[in-house]
C-alpha cells in the first residue's frame, strides 16, 4: 500500500492517474516535470524501508507518494543500499509498464524523465562512497538516470524523514 504526501492510502494502480492529473495541470508551464524515485531505510529492531515516488514541476511544486516495508534487520551497508536501489528500480519499472500500457499517458511518459535518487554520497568519511559506481552503473543499465548525495533529495530528505 502506498500513501500520498498527505498520508492518504492509495493503490499503486491509481498512482499513474494521479501523476497524469498533476501533469495535465502543470504541463503548460515552461518548467520541466520530472518523476523521481528514491528509497531510504533505517534500522530499528527491524529495517524500515521507505520508497518515494516524487513528481516535480520545477518552480511550481510537486506531489509524492510513499510506501513503508519492513524486513529483518540489515546491518551490512552494501546489502542495505542494494535493497534500497532494488526497491526504487522495481517501482520505476512497474510505473513505466503502467504508463506504456495506456495511450493517454504517452505524452507524459515521453516528456517526463524518470530518475532514481540513491542515498549514497561521495564524502571522504562516508561508508557509501565506494558503492556509488556499482549502484549508478546498475541504475543506468536499467535505463534511468541516477543521482547521489548531495543532490539525491528524494532519498536523502523525503524518504529519510519518513523512515525515522
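Sequence proposed for the structure above (164 residues):
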Amino acid at each position: 500500500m502506498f500513501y500520498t504526501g498527505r498520508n492518504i492510502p492509495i493503490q499503486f494502480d491509481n498512482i499513474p492517474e494521479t501523476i497524469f492529473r498533476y501533469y495535465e495541470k502543470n504541463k503548460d508551464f515552461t518548467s520541466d516535470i520530472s518523476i523521481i524515485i528514491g528509497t531510504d531505510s533505517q534500522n530499528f529492531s527491524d529495517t524500515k524501508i521507505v520508497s518515494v515516488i516524487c513528481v516535480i514541476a520545477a518552480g511550481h511544486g510537486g506531489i509524492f507518494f510513499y510506501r513503508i516495508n519492513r524486513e529483518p534487520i540489515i546491518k551490512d551497508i552494501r546489502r542495505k543500499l542494494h535493497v534500497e536501489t532494488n526497491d526504487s528500480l522495481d517501482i520505476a519499472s512497474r510505473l513505466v509498464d503502467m504508463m506504456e500500457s495506456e495511450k493517454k499517458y504517452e505524452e507524459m511518459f515521453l516528456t517526463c524523465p524518470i530518475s532514481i535518487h540513491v542515498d549514497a554520497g561521495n564524502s571522504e568519511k562516508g561508508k557509501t562512497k565506494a558503492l556509488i559506481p556499482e549502484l549508478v552503473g546498475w541504475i543506468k543499465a536499467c535505463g534511468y538516470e541516477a543521482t547521489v548525495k548531495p543532490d539525491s533529495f528524494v532519498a536523502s530528505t523525503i524518504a529519510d524523514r519518513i523512515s525515522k
